[in-house]
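Run log, item B.
One chain of 159 residues. Sequence copied directly from the ordering sheet:
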Amino acid sequence: MVWHQACILLPETRLTSDSPRPGGAKRGTAMTGFVARSRAQRGFTLIELMIVVAIIGILAAIAIPLYANIQARARIAKAQADARTLVSAISMYSATFGSLPAALANLTAANTISGVSGGPFMKSVPNAPAGWSAYSYSSNPCGIFTVTATGDSTTVSSP
C-alpha cells in the first residue's frame, strides 16, 4: 500500500486545515477546482437538446390553438356586448320619440321630432370586431327591430 506523504508524518508535523500547504492552496480546493472546471467545460448532449426542443414544440402545439380560440371568443363577446348597447340606445330613442330610428347613425345626433328633443343616445356607433361585418339594423312598422353582425362563423342578433 502506498501512503500519501502527509499521512506518514508524525502527528505533530501533519498538516491541519489551518496550516499552510505547498503552493499556498487551501485544503480541498485543488480537486474541487478541477471538478468544477471539467463540469463547466462539459456541455449538453445532443439528445438532451433534442428532448428540450421536442418539449417546447409540444407546448407550442397546445398553446397556439388555445390562444386562437380565446381571440375568437373575445370577438364574439365584443359583438354581443355592442349589440346589447345598440339595442339599449334604440330602446331609449323609441321611448323618447315614440318611433324607431331610421338608421343607427340617428342614435349619435341630437334630434327634434314632433316638438320632442332628445339625444344623442350614444357617442358613436361601435365598430364591429376585426373580420366581422358592420352592425346592421332593420326595423318594421310594427316596432320590431334587430341589430345583427356576422363573423367567426357566428351571427349575433339582438333582441
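Observations after the first pass:
- The longest strand covers residues 145-151.
- The longest helix spans residues 46-97.
Flagged for discussion on Thursday.
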